[in-house]
From TrEMBL:
GO terms for biological process: daunorubicin transport; doxorubicin transport. It comes from the Bacteria. Keywords: ATP-binding, Nucleotide-binding, Transport. Gene3D superfamilies: P-loop containing nucleotide triphosphate hydrolases. GO terms for cellular component: plasma membrane. The lineage of its organism: Bacteria, Bacillati, Bacillota, Bacilli, Bacillales. Belongs to the ABC transporter superfamily. Drug exporter-1 (DrugE1) (TC 3.A.1.105) family. Residues 2-233 form the ABC transporter domain. GO terms for molecular function: ATP binding; ATP hydrolysis activity. It is a peripheral membrane protein. It is found in: Cell membrane. This is ABC transporter ATP-binding protein. Its main location: membrane.
Length: 310
């Protein structure tokens, strides 16, 4: 349904997006992951026809949208990172404004406003000014605005950043319902791996402007099928010990966080004797040890060398 072909964008000496090819099938939910500066937002801007690529193409139903951007804009809803609303207007007034931009009027406009407000759970607060809403409520109106013209494709660029858990859960459930019950095609970027795990059928991972891996969640996890992750918790932080453990021969990746240490090792590697020996030498108390199969977060760390939020 929607595809990019070797999409590239250069800003003077900076190659922000380098030959990115993506494909979204009708009714599919696809995740686009990458650390900060990976090129995700630039790629989305080109797909949305807001930014002209240096080379490559974006096609909708096999037709180039670079030559016919209006075709894409009629069927695309975009939920940007930043709130794109007028704070001095109410939710109802914002949606009426955006609906008119899409050519809606009269009874159809009012019906659509009622539908999207009900969809995001704000029908009873539609007359309040947006500036009085919480950040989470504003994000929900942002989604409602993107849905006013009944789009076929919804692009969501980190839509849950900085919002309360209740609004986050409501947004995620709404997106999942749109995709699974109404067949909405979704391209979703996030700094929260669990959101992508919950919502997306397939995932593309970007780093330094390129797609470095793609597939279903199970296919990506299979990259680390011969590895496992040992998670160790201590009574407090021991930076010197953590560094020593990360340097044990065979350890492929280490992730340190306060009192926890995650070590990625080959399956079958005997680590516990060395672990407890070093802990005793440093006077450290181990409070918990468990082994887990690789997660999507582990795959991301292995491929990019960074966490998703770096």
């Amino acid at each position: 349904m929607l595809e990019t072909d070797k999409l590239t964008k250069r800003f003077k000496d900076t190659l922000a997006v380098d030959g990115v090819s993506l494909e979204l099938k009708k009714g599919e939910s696809v995740g686009l992951l990458g650390p900060n500066g990976a090129g995700k937002s630039t790629a989305i801007a080109m797909i949305s026809t807001l930014l002209k690529p240096s080379s490559g193409d974006v096609r909708l139903h096999g037709k180039s949208v670079l030559k016919h951007p209006g075709d894409m804009r009629r069927v695309l809803g975009v939920v940007p990172q930043k709130i794109a609303l007028y704070e001095e207007l109410s939710a109802y007034e914002n949606l009426k404004f955006f609906g008119r931009l899409y050519g809606l009027s009269g009874k159809k406009l009012e019906q659509r406003i009622d539908y999207v407000l009900d969809l995001v759970g704000l029908a009873d607060r539609k007359k309040e000014l947006v500036k009085h809403y919480s950040g989470g409520m504003q994000r929900r109106v942002n989604l409602a605005a993107a849905m006013m013209h009944e789009p076929e494709v919804l692009i969501m660029d980190e839509p849950t950043v900085g919002i309360d858990p209740q609004s986050r859960n409501h947004l995620l459930e709404t997106i999942r319902r749109l995709n699974r019950e109404e067949g909405m095609t979704v391209l979703y970027t996030s700094h929260y791996m669990e959101e992508v795990e919950k919502l997306c059928d397939r995932v593309y991972i970007m780093d330094h402007g390129k797609v470095i891996a793609e597939g279903t969640k199970e296919e990506l996890k299979a990259i680390l099928s011969n590895q496992e992750t040992v998670c160790i918790e201590f009574d407090q932080s021991y930076p010197d010990l953590f560094q020593k453990l990360s340097e044990i021969e065979g350890v492929q990746h280490a992730d340190m966080d306060e009192r926890r240490l995650k070590l990625m090792i080959p399956k079958g590697m005997r680590l516990l004797a060395s672990l407890f020996h070093e802990a005793e030498r440093h006077g450290a108390q181990v409070t918990n040890v468990h082994v887990q199969t690789p997660t999507l977060e582990d795959v991301f760390l292995r491929l990019t060398g960074r966490t998703l939020r770096d």
